[in-house]
Specification:
The complex is a heterodimer. Chain A contains ten helices and two strands, in the order ββαααααααααα. Chain A is mainly alpha-helical. The longest helix of chain A is centred in the first third of the chain and has 25 residues, at 72-96. In chain B, helix 2 (45-63) crosses helix 5, helix 3 (102-122) packs antiparallel against helix 16 (352-373) and helix 7 (164-190) crosses helix 9 (209-229). The chains are: A mainly alpha, B alpha+beta.
């Protein structure tokens, strides 16, 4: 390559390579570009010294840490601490809040609680209850006005803290027998009581004999928990069977299946897994979805 | 450039300049170092116009931040203020919110159309008189002249060895440049924070860091662009010379050399006859005066910013040699050709291009004025919850959730009444508000407030899966109102 190739048109030297008669011009790099390139090389050496750069030789642990001592791990931890510190004022106030009204009457705290609640809901609750808290079959819709265990601020908070049928000592607990699976009732008895239960919420077109037989079974087996008129009992999480909401589905097949196997819905306890103020924020968020009930009204209902 | 030509004196005070057009496109090389240009001071009507315009433009730039405009106690009283922290742009009676950024777009469109119109009529008057690059460069050259003298003295000084005389002149020049540059950067930040506050805090270190940053950046750019880069900004950095080629046409006025009158050019001796020769005595006064380093006699060029200083320079010479002025003047391409062909010049200002620009300008201006004068002090919009779309309640009724956004642009706290027009037997609830208060909400001055509103309709009142809902919001005790339309979803009447 000692021979120089000069392009006739431009008078510029070429690289000497040729492809189908085409040669590449060997123009010089712009001066400013070259200087920036050299400056970058110089800077990279400075950077090696300042910042963590080289892994330790084989057989040794670690890396060159750099004289500045920068560590992204430490930075993240510091950022997280700063974030926690900036939120701590709100968390303290949330911790002190005893009721929904106390949070709501403080607009800044209310906004904070809803925002924190929403993001934690997406993290921990949406898996079962859905991103919009709309629920699925077997997982309650938290937007509506039906609360198996009570919908007051403190009721919701208790449910969040201890869970339902969870492994927490103070969990909310009740169990509906698996009437079919455990052989407590015959298939016919189950169908009769199914028709009776459906008739409670306005279902029509059932056989009169089946209904009266079903009513007898209901009185002996179901009324203890669901009440004589099927209105349910919040103290033991027994649903109201007369309303329009069916947690496990309202079709005859679904209701029959529920009686046959006895639903056993579980919600984990969050005490210990989430900080108390976070649970309070979640409570406020769930409460604000539209179904929250007043404190006194809930107590009154429980006392009936 | 022979010495013989220097001896030819056409009239008292007429000198031939030893000058070459350093930016002549034919000689320019891409890798060549910049050749300095030493524009010679000229006197005349265009120079005067440029001085006057410079004083007005700089005066406006430095003075406007100190103008006050009363907007009441809750808003700043600076007439022109770009308030990033408060997210507002104030311009006298106009107040623009971030969501109204289209007004700024409108302003830019109007500015662009005005530039097009002016360019179609008068060529690059923007470049020549009003562009900040031109104004500041002109000012910097004036300072340079003050310290180092006019063209010949400056050339001599640059060639001279370093001495005390040279040093103090250079240091003096750069010091004054820096002061002007700092004042430029200093005034810039006054547009973003209250001018008087900023002035009192700036020197004690109490201004926000961004203020010092922009002050530094603008000081640096002003000094560099107007002091050392000058014409290179126009030739290499600015896109306008390229665009200008598309905006101009043969009827647009441009600074031009009257070839028909000037040629054949040549040196002229006192008393010599003007018969059979052109009026151009090739003194190169026009080249010496040019801040862009070109020779206008070569015709229209990309580098020419049409500052018209060559007109003044040439007119001065023409008076001295007793020939009519206007050998270099504002002219159109068409007339240059017509004059060479011996035809009378024609001026066509009402061309389709001009009319279209003017029409578009009037339309855009009217839309802006209409928008700004009828701008509502209240804005409303509504978002319906989409997850879930609707909620069934225990008694079978259906509930939809909405977020109603109410924007209060007035400077006072206001109470608004909400009217809801939707399905029959509709019941409402506003989250976080006592039902007893009714459908009224408070929005503080200059704030946007969100309200969560739940609407519930009994199952038997539902007539369709999708029913219209209209929120009407009006300030208490006012006829003004804004509506937001949405729907009520229910999954059907079942």
């Amino acid at each position: 390559m000692s021979e120089k190739h000069i392009d006739q048109e431009t008078g510029t030297e070429t690289t000497g390579h040729e492809w189908d008669g085409i040669r590449e011009l060997d123009n010089p790099l712009p001066r400013w570009w070259l200087w920036i390139f050299y400056a970058c090389i110089a800077w990279s050496v400075v950077y090696w010294v300042l910042m963590p750069a080289w892994p330790a030789p084989p057989g040794m642990q670690g890396f060159t840490e750099g004289v500045v001592g920068n560590s992204e791990r430490v930075n993240v931890a510091e950022d997280m601490q700063a974030l926690q510190a900036s939120r701590s004022e709100f968390f303290t106030r949330l911790d002190a809040a005893e009721s929904y009204d106390a949070i709501e009457s403080d607009p800044a705290l209310f906004r904070f609680a809803l925002a924190a609640g929403q993001s934690n809901f997406a993290n921990f609750c949406a898996t079962c209850h859905g991103a919009g808290a709309q629920g699925f079959t077997g997982y309650p819709n938290l937007n509506d006005d039906v609360w198996l265990w009570g919908g007051s601020f403190n009721d919701i908070r208790t449910t969040l803290l201890y869970g339902i049928r969870s492994d927490h000592a103070e969990t909310r607990y009740s169990q509906m027998p698996a009437y079919g699976a455990d052989g407590l009732l015959s298939r016919e008895e189950i169908r009769n009581v199914r028709d009776y239960v459906l008739s409670l919420s306005g279902g029509t077109g059932f056989d009169a004999a089946a209904l009266s037989a079903g009513a007898e079974v209901f009185a002996s087996q179901c009324a203890t928990c669901h009440g004589d008129n099927g209105m349910g009992d919040r103290s033991q999480g027994a649903p109201d069977l007369t309303d329009a909401i069916w947690l496990y589905g309202g079709s005859p097949e679904q209701v029959e299946n529920s009686i046959w196997r006895g639903p056993f819905g579980v919600m984990p306890a969050w005490e210990g897994r989430l900080d108390d103020p976070v649970i309070t924020a979640l409570t406020a968020y769930v409460y604000s979805l539209g179904g929250g009930e007043a404190e006194t009204a809930a107590e009154g209902a429980a006392g009936e | 450039m022979s010495t013989a030509r220097h001896n030819l004196i056409s009239a008292p005070g007429v000198a031939t300049h030893d000058v070459e057009a350093v930016n002549d496109a034919r000689k320019r090389k891409l890798y060549k170092k910049r050749e300095p240009i030493y524009p010679k001071l000229v006197h005349g009507k265009f120079r005067l116009a440029k001085w006057v315009f410079m004083v007005l433009a700089l005066g406006a730039y430095y003075f406007i931040p100190f103008l006050r405009w009363d907007r009441g106690p809750s808003a700043p009283d600076q007439a022109v203020l770009i308030d990033f922290e408060g997210r507002r742009f104030y311009f006298f009676f106009i107040e623009i919110w971030p969501q109204e950024i289209y007004y700024v777009s409108g302003l830019l469109i109007i500015a662009a159309l005005a530039l097009f119109l002016v360019s179609a009529l008068f060529g690059r008057v923007w470049c020549g008189y009003a562009c900040p690059q031109t104004v500041w460069t002109d000012l910097f050259i004036a300072v340079e002249r003050l310290f180092e003298g006019d063209r010949n003295k400056r050339i001599k000084l640059d060639r001279a060895k370093w001495s005390f005389d040279k040093a103090w002149r250079k240091i003096g020049k750069h010091s004054v440049w820096l002061v002007i540059a700092a004042a430029t950067g200093g005034a810039w930040i006054l547009y973003f924070h209250d001018a008087y506050d900023t002035l009192s805090h700036f020197f004690t270190g109490g201004s926000p860091i961004s203020a010092y940053l922009f002050f530094g950046v603008l000081t640096f750019t002003t000094h560099t662009l107007a002091g050392t880069m000058r014409e290179q900004v126009c030739i290499y950095m600015c896109p306008w010379p390229r665009i200008q080629a598309a905006m101009t046409d043969r009827d647009a006025l441009n600074v031009a050399y009257r070839v028909d009158r000037g040629e054949p050019r040549g040196a002229h001796k006192k008393g010599e006859s003007w018969e059979g020769r052109g009026d151009c005595i090739d003194c190169k006064a026009c080249v010496a005066a040019c801040p862009m380093g070109i020779d206008i006699r070569e015709g229209s060029q990309l580098e020419c910013i049409q500052c018209a200083l060559c007109i003044d320079a040439c007119d001065d010479i023409m008076k001295k040699v007793d020939r009519p002025t206007g050998l270099i003047s504002y002219d159109t391409d068409i007339n240059i050709d017509r004059r060479q062909a011996g035809l009378a010049p024609i001026y066509k200002f009402l061309r389709p291009r001009v009319l279209v620009y003017a029409f578009a300008l009037v339309i855009a201006g009217s839309i802006m004025m209409f928008g700004l004068t009828t701008r509502a002090s209240l804005d409303v919009n509504v978002t319906r919850d989409r997850n879930p779309n609707f909620v069934q309640l225990s008694d079978g009724s259906v509930r939809n959730g909405y977020t109603l956004k109410v924007i209060n642009r007035t400077h006072e706290n206001r109470e608004y009444r909400i009217a809801i027009d939707g399905p029959e037997r509709l019941e409402w609830r506003i989250l976080g508000q006592e039902s007893a208060r009714g459908l009224t909400v408070d929005v503080p001055a200059e704030r946007t407030q969100d309200f969560r509103i739940f609407l519930t309709v009994p199952r038997e009142a539902i007539t369709a899966s999708n029913q219209s809902v209209i929120f009407t919001v009006s300030p208490d005790g006012s006829d003004e109102s804004r509506t937001a339309e949405t729907v009520f979803l229910s999954g059907g009447s079942r």
